[in-house]
Amino acid sequence: MRPEGPSEPRQGGGAGPGQRGVATRSNLIARLWPARGSFRPGFSGSPVAGSTVMAMYPKHTEEAEAYREKIQAFLAEHLPAHWQGVGALSGHDRARFTAEWRDILRDNNLLAASWPIEYGGPGLSDLENVIIVEEFSKAGVPTAGPNDGFGISMVGNTIIEWGTEDQKKYFLPRILSGEDIWCQGYSEPNAGSDLANLGTKAELDGDVWILNGQKIWTSAGQAANWIFVLGRTAPDAAKHAGITFFLCPMDQPGVEVRPIRNISGHDHFNEVFFSDARTPKENVVGEVNSGWAVAMTLLGYERGVGASVNHLRHEEELGRLMAMAKVRGRTSDPKIRQRLAWCHSKVEIMRFMGMQALTSFLSGNAPGAGSSTSKLNWSEYHKVMTELSLDILGADAMIRDGDAEDGAGNGTSSPGTPNSNNMWINNSLAARAGTIYAGTSEVQRNIIGERILGLPKEPRSDAGPWKDALK
Fold it and tell me: To the nearest whole number, what is the mean pLDDT of the chain?
């Protein structure tokens, strides 16, 4: 959607559906500059009550807004009174709530919202799926269980698109029930940014594929019992052409998982070693030696609708940082104010990029090179924003205080997480990883340069057989 030209600021009028975020943004600035008025060029949409700020929001049909009210009513019915967000819970309570919440979603047919009815999903439209993600994000609750991003969103959707009927009948119900818990076997020590350089060897022995090799940075691998794996099945072929996509059970002697403890003291990542690991030949998704296309389909589901609502979590987290800055008396420092204002501008950019992504998604377009701009923007922003949080803490940033799990995950801290020292320390340490996982910032810049800006591609020396490129 494209903004209209500048309009005069207007007063009055109630906040319409979906405008809760606008009021929040106005209040963020008011916390820092309460005596100053604000003006921004107007966009299509209704004004915020008592504000001079105009904002653009996609207009949905009455049926879509009625569905939004239905989801809001569901949240009001099933969340505890005075709910503050999943981050407000302690580590043990958070894990218990998440497990129970997954059961509630499954019982109310809201788990795997994008899946068709014939595969156990509710068969919702793309817009209804987006509304669920938006409202759940605002409420500070997950849309699924801890590993369901790998099970439901990634491999489940990929099986629906590429799998055989037997694979769909076997795996999809087990993913929904939680019996099968999945992780991702893509990156390797010599195949991270250049994923197609992977070397995990897969050889067919009768009716069974034998896997040997190593995967790394396997998120939540210690909790999984299945892994989807990219293996090298044709070393004589070009590196993209000799890859196959496997589904492999992890509860076997040939699979070893070794947690990697990170700088903040947590072990979300793992190494996975395959030593004559076995998986039936029926567990190949797509064709043998054509796994690259399957792998790229899965990465499209990894990005999905996330970019359209990514700003909501960053906005909530920035609000907590601004509150902490005000409590600590740091907003009187013009340099701190300037840095907070820069953060606010970046989150606003995320919001408009999210609208662009949402428009494209609802038009039926698959995520393309444009998703690299979103990933680059939020990951580089988060590194700078969390550095600012430590500067605001000052000497307190050297003292561990609060729940050890506060802010310990990847990306933004969970909504409702207390403003503890631990939260900002862990968040800052984890933010560095955000510029590496899901494609490094260097790779994202290459994609933007080559595929969006049309700059010349870098020269390559690996166009021949994969095995020759290793010499």
Answer: 84
